Amino acid sequence: MTPSTADQPQMAVEDFEQIAHTAPETVTLEFIDGKLEVKPVPDGDHGTIFMWLLRQCMQHRPELDLYPEQGLRVETYRKGRARPDGALAPRRHFAGQGEWAEPDGVLMTVEVTSHDADTDKRDRHEKRFAYADAGIPVYLLIDREACTLTVYSELENGQYRQHPSYDYGATVELPAPVGITLDTEELKEYAR
Question: Helix (H, G, I), strand (E, B), or coil: what is residue 49?
Answer without folding.
Answer: helix
